[in-house]
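Need tokens for this chain, all 126 residues.
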Amino acid sequence: MRDVRIGLFLPIVSDLTESELQDAPSDVQAIYDELMTFNCERIEESAESLALASKYIAEGILFQKQEADARHIAVATINKVDILVSWNFKHVVRYDKIQRFNAVNALRGYKPLEIYTPMEVANEEI
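Here are the structure tokens for all 126 residues:
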């Protein structure tokens, strides 16, 4: 959040994130609320992103019960997000998965999606 506060990153939030956070703990909701006070870009799911998410599942990268993860990755891909930041080490921030997501993306003409943990993108030098 410090890097967002000082303007190093422009946060992009999807409608998926907003719906997932409705039942989140209050401290998580407070962080989201603060994030939304910045010049946050909002993106939305589309038929195109839903089709791409289905492809990730059909290719066996994720299972149906991880559909929400597939949808996040697809909406970021379709909207040409530079970096998807996630704490999800089990299904998202994994080298093997990232390579497979991007292989599917490349076959469909989308640019690769960079996926990192918050610690990997945080600028510690400032």
